[in-house]
Amino acid sequence: MCENDVNRRAALLQIIGGALVLGGTAHAEETLRRTPMVTLGPFYPLDRERETDADMTRLRGHANRAKGEVIEVTGRLLNRRGAPVNRGVVEFWQANAAGRYAHPSDPNTAAALDTDFQGYARIVTDQTGQFRILTVKPGAYPAGRDWSRPPHLHIDAAGRVDRVSSQMWFPDDPLNGQDRVLADYPAAAHPALMAKKLDARADGVARFSWDIVLQTG
Ligand SMILES: [Fe+2]
Hints:
binds fe (ii) ion, 2 domains, single chain
């Protein structure tokens, strides 16, 4: 390496160093808590190439809607500075209203499958980072001899730089207090995992909102 190269390299390192310092300043402006990582779990859908649209309550060609209480879930995919993640991909999957996953590993066979339930959706966020799904409220399901998982949605959200898998809990569910998955997280992390209940739609459909926060987006 000649002296010129060494100087050029030193100058480059200085620029990178400066960028890191600027990055450090930006870090100080980060205000949102990153969505806590929760395992994908054993029921991440094996077949993700079937119907994936935002209305999980209806399947093409089926006369009936999925069983259960229809709910709408909206939210935004953001980074820690609050900037929206455009064209991020958010996958949703969940148990049906009876607490059963359409997955061969689900041992809860006492609960019936619902062949009218889509059970999985893949949403591309818009310029404001927003996503919206229509689904049914998932049922609780037994997770051991003496406890049950409360209703929850699973998500995997991918931005351009990073991604997170997590779960969304429903506020005020009586089973939340005994959920051993939620108990793995400190109380300070719980608000980031809990949906907010909004006013119901004019047609009576219950609405929830939940923002997903990536480190960088
Ligand atoms: Fe689950």
